[in-house]
Amino acid sequence: MSSTPSAPAPTPQQEQALREPPVPVAAKKLRVNNQRAVSATLDGTTLTLEVPAADKGQIGFVTAYVGTSVVPIGGAIFDKQRRLLVDLGNLADTELRLAVQDEDGKLLGWYQHEPTVEPVAEELDGTETVSPATTPTSASPKNSAPVGALDGVLSGIGVALLFAAWGAIALRRRGAVA
Question: What is the pTM (predicted TM-score) of this model?
Answer without folding.
Answer: 0.64
